[in-house]
Specification:
The complex is a heterodimer of chains A (65) and B (290). Chain A is mostly helical and 65 residues long. Chain A has one domain. Helix content of chain A is 78%, strand content 0%. In chain A, helix 1 crosses helix 2 and helix 2 packs across helix 3. Chain A is globular. Chain B has one domain. Chain B starts with a helix and ends with a helix. With 290 residues, chain B is an all-alpha fold. Chain B is built from eleven helices and no strands. The chains are: A mainly alpha (65), B mainly alpha (290). Chains A and B meet through helix 1, helix 2 and helix 3 of A and helix 1, helix 6 and helix 11 of B.
Chain lengths: 65, 290
């Protein structure tokens, strides 16, 4: 698992890969004022809807979240 | 869970709103219907040429849809690369269509010609795009249902068998080496197309409970429609320009495949819009609360 300080960076990386640079930039600005916990919950919910529950879980593991 | 968090996380309502606003599938269906009507209007001797010009709307619309999606997605990133590959393949096919049209305009036989080279390279680029998409979304064959895997293998074997058979009967010693080589190359291209469709089907299965799979439904449909039309074309290459009813049927399938590719792009556009609207609405919520 990545360091706490890296969580936001990896979350943005996942969004960059799956949903493109424009979306990741939007979320980068939004995540700036969120706690790490909130970022993880938000990202998990978004990915679960977008790629499904088990795939989202796998993506989290793959990106060390 | 706080009201703020609930609002942040609930995407369903936003998606429904977006879908109501933009029913691109109906728009594509309307365009397709108009193109078909255009094909069937009798214009006498000019029928073939005018139909080929109308036909070009298919690749143009798919490329425009790709451009719009890429603009929304952003030009960098892994998904953007996949879309760029697909656009490149469609661009090559568009060049092939242009060459075909000009050869018909000049009264020359478009098969075999430079057009076939563009089409066949396009197949290769499509393969690269689908493999990249499968890698990005971590397609895992081991996770697929055994029954589905068996079905996929049988279908692929059938495609190889049918296309291979057509390739063998399409070989004519009286024709030039180039002509026969082109026929065989088309068959290989069709086997690739069938394989790509099955890879996309496997991805749809793995991601069956997700939004992401919707785009692959369009893509897979495009590959299958294209494969079907190509198979008929391999059996009757002269039908590409002889102005028969088969020419219109073939063009109808191919233009349909192009519009399905446009649907693939626009489905991704919708997904991106959905994801972006979630964060935009959350920001609005923050502003109104502070």
């Amino acid at each position: 698992m990545v360091d706490k300080g890296e969580i936001k960076k990896m979350a943005i990386q996942i969004l960059h890969d799956y949903l493109g640079v424009t979306t990741s930039k939007l979320y980068k600005n939004f995540y700036m004022n969120q706690t790490e916990e909130m970022v993880l919950i938000s990202l998990k919910e978004l990915l679960t809807e977008y790629i499904g529950e088990s795939q989202a879980r796998d993506a989290f593991i793959r990106y060390g979240l | 869970m706080s009201h703020k968090l609930e609002m942040l996380l609930s995407g369903t309502d936003y998606r429904a709103t977006i879908m109501k606003k933009f029913r691109f599938s109906l728009l594509l269906l309307l365009i397709y219907t108009l193109i078909l009507v255009g094909f069937f209007i009798n214009r006498g001797e000019q029928q073939v040429v005018i139909n080929k010009i109308i036909y070009l709307l298919g690749p143009i619309i798919s490329l425009v849809a790709g451009g719009i999606t890429l603009h929304r997605l952003g030009w960098q990133g892994k998904r953007a690369t996949v879309i760029k590959y697909i656009m490149m393949a469609l661009g090559l096919w568009f060049l092939g269509e242009m060459v075909t049209m000009f050869m018909i305009l000049m009264g020359k036989e478009p098969y075999p010609s430079l057009a076939d080279v563009f089409f066949l390279i396009g197949y290769g680029v499509f393969s690269f795009a689908v493999v990249s998409e499968a890698k990005l979304f971590e397609l895992n064959w081991n996770r697929l249902d055994r029954f589905l895997l068996i079905i996929l293998c049988i279908v692929f074997a059938l495609i190889v068998g049918i296309v291979g058979y057509i390739s063998v009967i399409g070989y004519k010693p009286s024709e030039s080496l180039l002509s026969n080589l082109t026929t065989v190359s088309w068959s290989i291209g069709d086997i690739i197309m069938g394989g790509l469709g099955l890879v996309l089907l496997a991805m749809m299965w793995q991601y069956k409970n997700s939004i992401a799979k919707n785009a692959w439904v369009w893509f897979m449909a495009a590959t299958m429609v294209n494969l079907f039309a190509d198979t008929i074309y391999n059996l009757n290459p002269e039908a590409i320009s002889n102005g028969s009813i088969l020419t219109i049927i073939l063009d109808s399938f191919w233009v349909g495949a192009y519009l399905l590719f446009a649907g693939y792009f626009l489905e991704i556009y919708k997904d991106i819009q959905w994801a972006q609207s979630k964060v935009s609405d959350s920001k609005e919520l923050h502003k109104s609360e502070s």
